Amino acid sequence: MLYRRPIVEHLSEIGALTPNFTLNHAIWLTDHELDLVAEHGCSVTHNPVSNLKLGAGVARVPEMLARGINVALGTDGTSTSDRADMLRSLALAAILHRVGEMDYATWPTAEDAFRMATNGGAQSALLQDDIGTIEVGRKADLVLYDRSDYGFIPLKDPVAQLTYAVNSDAVRTVLVDGRVIMRERELTGIDEAAIKAELREEAERYL
Across-strand partners of 59? Predict the structure, then answer.
């Protein structure tokens, strides 16, 4: 043990734990460490796909949520999660923590996972007053989905359907602060076809 005590206890002792502090992954935390994270208002980034691929373990997300810890949803880098697909992470965050736990009352719901992907991420980045929800006066960071996707037919519970039934193929248009960066699955700021062709050529040469 590097600091002769768990790392979160060390961070608490030196005053590093604040609402400005986000723990990435946070898989092997003790009960006391979870209490410290909650006490100091820190956030945690949950990266379920990456953690499973690496065999790193499963974060104690149900216990974090029960303590009121803000949990954000992430993908980690493409070297550990490959697709960096937020909808893949969204679905996994909602179902992973049911394994081995028969008490369904403790399971994170689709709404919990959706909150991690929206408000949770905004709070982790200290941008909760600007993004994370669709409201007048907030930045228009929006993802528009294809309502004709099979996962949305019939449309009954959009959050549950987005979490469990839809994949990233349903994404049509993306706006960041009101600026359209992808329209009908075509990026607006770059020549994606040319870049992909160059990547393929260089990658094949390297291999």
Answer: none
Full-model pTM: 0.92
Of all helices (H) and strands (E), which one includes residue 180?
strand 179-183
**Per-run averaged pLDDT (10 residues), the chain, 207 residues:** 88 96 97 98 97 95 98 93 93 95 94 98 97 96 97 97 97 97 96 95 95
pLDDT tens profile 63-82: 999 999 999 999 998 888 88
* Phi and psi, residue 186, nearest 5°: -120, 125
d(CA 36, CA 62): 16
**What's the CA angle centered on 126, arms 120 and 127, to 5 degrees?**
80
Residue 38: left (phi > 0), alpha (psi -120 to 50), or beta? alpha
Least Cα distance to 39 among 62, 12, 59 occurs for 12
Whole-angstrom distance, CA of residue 90 vs CA of residue 116 = 8
Strand 70-73 versus strand 142-145 pairing type? unpaired
> How far does the chain reach from its first CA to its final CA, in angstroms?
41
52 to 5, 89, 116, 184, 196: CA distances (angstroms): 26, 11, 18, 32, 29
Q: How far is CA 202 from the centre of its chain?
A: 31
Q: How many CB atoms lie within 10 A of CB 203?
A: 9
For 16, list phi and psi in degrees, rounded to 5: -85, -20
CA distance 204 to 206: 5
